[in-house]
Design goal:
Elements: H1 5-19, E1 28-31, H2 41-53, E2 59-61, H3 68-74, H4 80-92, E3 101-106, H5 108-119, E4 125-131, H6 149-160, H7 165-170, H8 183-189, H9 193-196, H10 206-212, E5 217-223, E6 239-248, E7 254-266, H11 272-275, H12 281-286, E8 290-295, H13 306-313
Parallel strand pairs: 1-2, 1-3, 3-4, 4-5, 5-8
Antiparallel strand pairs: 6-7
Signal peptide: 1-19
EC number: 3.1.2.22
Pfam families: Palm_thioest
Length: 318
């Protein structure tokens, strides 16, 4: 029986398509948040969900320590600069990442991945997604769970001497604490956040701006009801500012008092870090490379928020 010409063309097309190499999704790197571990049930579940969205994707979860408990502890105690350097060596040694990758940082893992991009970026990051991260630091230490003794000890130590030498070298949260009441001390004592934000003119590094602006997309996710990150706008590079509140003293004298209002937020596009383009944000924004996203809910409530972003900005996305 003679096969119709249209059938021959159709069958030939199937053979041709099946013979083409399958496109492998771009690899993905994850960095967990405070109180978590690279191999926790939640991180493993998230990696599995990503693999459902992008079959065949390679996912690597960053670790500081391979032991579960020690890795969780490293989220509270350690020197962030040394941890970022350790992770840069770790990522450079993974063959699957040599051609570059997308990255997702959860909470503090977001600014740590940004530090990697600015300082190393070899292999390079294509898209960076940060969920509830503290890009402009925090002005209060997050409250711990009732039975989380490790967190409570770290929080108490950080609040007592946040800008002391020991805290700035050993307490992770202290290293991105940015006190709007005490900016002078912040600039002189802090060695991590001031660095990756290029806030100190004498040590400003042009490589940071070059590397960050090389991203395809920087996706900044803010949680609308976030009470863990103070201020929550830090996730969008916003920071609290001190305002003058005029009122009468007990003696009836009109006087100004410095106060911090939760509504007194300096947004990204009014920040010196943006206006003077210290780390490449303005250049990135000029080509629509900064994406502002809101997730309804409290800190790290990802349900209903993560999937669309993973589809669009991870794996075989943009």
């Amino acid at each position: 029986m003679k096969v119709p010409l249209v059938s021959v063309v159709f069958l030939s097309s199937i053979v041709l398509v099946s013979s083409l190499p399958r496109l492998t999704p771009r690899p993905l790197v994850l960095w967990h948040g405070l109180g978590d571990s690279y191999s926790s049930p939640g991180m493993l579940e998230f990696a599995s969900l990503v693999k459902d969205v992008h079959p065949g994707i390679f996912v690597h979860s960053v670790f500081i320590e391979e032991d579960f408990d020690k890795d969780r502890q490293a989220g509270f105690y350690g020197n962030i600069n040394e941890q970022v350097e350790f992770v840069a060596t770790q990522l450079a040694g993974i063959p699957e990442l040599k051609g570059g990758f997308d990255a997702i940082g959860f909470s503090q893992g977001g600014q740590f991945l940004r530090a990697y991009v600015e300082r190393y970026n070899d292999p390079p990051v294509n898209n960076l997604i940060t969920f509830g991260s503290q890009h402009m630091g925090i002005s209060d230490i997050p409250v711990c769970g009732r039975y989380d003794l490790l967190c409570q000890i770290a929080r108490r130590s950080a609040k007592q001497a946040v800008y002391g030498a020991w805290a700035q070298n050993n307490l992770v949260q202290a290293q991105y604490f940015r006190d709007p009441w005490n900016m002078e001390k912040y600039f002189t004592a802090n060695q991590f956040l001031t660095s990756i934000n290029n806030e100190v003119a004498a040590t400003r590094n042009a490589t940071y701006a070059h590397n960050l602006s090389s991203l395809n997309n920087l996706v900044l996710v803010l949680f609308t009801e976030d009470k863990t990150v103070v201020p929550k706008e830090s996730s969008w590079f916003g920071s609290q500012i001190v305002e003058e509140d005029w009122g009468r003293s007990e003696q009836g004298v009109l006087a100004a008092t410095n106060v911090i209002s939760e509504h007194a937020i300096l947004p990204l596009r009014r920040q010196p870090i943006y206006l003077e383009d210290w780390i490449g944000l303005r250049e990135l924004d000029a080509r629509n490379g900064i994406v502002f996203v809101t997730c309804k809910g409290e800190h790290m409530q990802l349900s209903g928020c993560w999937k669309e972003l993973v589809i669009k900005y991870a794996g075989s996305g943009e």
